[in-house]
Amino acid sequence: MADEFAKGLGLLTGAGLIWMVLAGWYRTPSFSGAQLYGAIPDNLTMYDQIAVLLLESMFWLAIFGAILFWVGVPLGREVYAQFSGE
Questions:
Q1: Which DSSP string corresponds to 49-74?
Q2: For residues 47 and 57, is the Cβ–Cβ distance under 8 A?
Q3: Which of the chain's ends, N or C, has fewer CB atoms near its CB within 10 Å?
Q4: Using the 8-state DSSP alphabet, how is residue 31 labeled?
Q5: In 3D, which of 25, 10, 4, 19 has the Cα closest to residue 60?
Q6: DSSP state of 29
Q7: Contacts of 73 (CB under 8 A, 6+ apart)
């Protein structure tokens, strides 16, 4: 069980760090206003659009990755053990 916790924590912190860096670049218009949750600028290049796509995917990877390893895998093992007779 400790390895699932470590994997979930690794996904949460790793993807969360990438999200925070990209959100700081693209979602912080000024330091006196909204930080990490401001509006994304309109005039984006192709590389900026890829970074915004990575920004959104890292947010969801952090959330669902931690839930998968902390809830889904242990629940799946319990269900498998119940039905396989172990």
A1: HHHHHHHHHHHHHHHHHHHIIIIIHH
A2: no
A3: C
A4: T
A5: 19
A6: S
A7: 4
Domain, as residue range, for 25: 2-84
Q: What does pTM read for this prediction?
A: 0.83
Could you tell me which residues come within 8 angstroms of residue 31 by beta carbon, excluding any fewer than 6 positions away?
none
List pLDDT tens digits, range 6-43: 999 999 999 999 999 999 999 988 888 788 888 898 99
Question: Tokens at residue 50, please?
Answer: 């890829």
Contacts of 54 (CB under 8 A, 6+ apart): 18, 22
| Lookup: tokens for 29 | 């218009």
Number of structural domains found in the chain: 1
